[in-house]
TrEMBL record:
The keyword ATP-binding does not apply. One of its GO terms (molecular function) is kinase activity. InterPro entries: P-loop_NTPase. Gene3D superfamilies: P-loop containing nucleotide triphosphate hydrolases (3.40.50.300). Transmembrane segments: none annotated. The lineage of its organism: Bacteria, Bacillati, Actinomycetota, Actinomycetes, Kitasatosporales. It comes from Kitasatospora atroaurantiaca. This is Putative kinase. Pfam families: AAA_33 (PF13671). Keywords: Kinase, Transferase.
């Protein structure tokens, strides 16, 4: 039996991670486990929740995210895992999973103005985004307090591909799938 693959889709906010993760999961026939979607489900079950940096719900989300991924990998399931995956926060959760399957890292990149427009659009169009601190992120980006350039990508010893999502996918989806399946 071959080992499952853990496809790690990462990138800064607004870089198209979730959209790409779901497209990959559909193409591969496997689940996409998205950190933000887990948090949205927890927020739904927590009336009155207000997001803030490091809040208890965010901490529980992180633990649950890695537990679910580990459970699936141990069962032999290939998984697409999507989150920002900034190195210092996420590498400690990913490293223990390395022995459970083959890891492929996909780093989403995007033009900063496109990312900011995507963040603004999802705040307007998706009520579930209230579980996240997108309004503060937009304010910080607009004021220059924060920059998408501050994103520190995950640094694991695993094959990595950079995908520009500014206008479609470059490289294209079939090429990304070839990268994932190359053993």
């Amino acid at each position: 039996m071959t080992s499952p693959t853990l496809i790690v889709v990462s990138g800064p906010s607004g870089s198209g991670k979730t959209t790409l993760a779901h497209a990959l999961a559909r193409a591969l026939g496997c689940p996409a486990i998205c950190r933000d979607e887990i948090k949205e489900g927890m927020a739904h079950a927590t009336p009155g929740f207000t997001p803030s940096p490091g809040d208890p719900l965010t901490q529980r989300t992180l633990t649950t995210f890695f537990e679910v991924i580990g459970l699936l990998l141990k069962a032999g399931v290939t998984v697409v895992a999507e989150a920002a995956f900034q190195d210092r926060l996420w590498r400690p959760g990913l490293e223990p999973l390395a022995g459970l399957g083959t890891i492929r890292i996909i780093r989403c990149t995007v033009d900063a103005t496109v990312a900011q427009a995507r963040i603004a659009r999802r705040v307007e169009e998706n009520a579930r985004r209230a579980a996240h601190d997108d309004h503060d992120l937009l304010r910080a980006l607009a004021s220059g307090e924060s920059s998408l350039d501050a994103f520190v990508p995950i640094s694991l010893a695993a094959p990595t591909i950079h995908v520009d999502t500014t206008d479609g996918y470059h490289p294209c989806l079939p090429d990304i799938l070839t990268f994932i399946n190359d053993r």
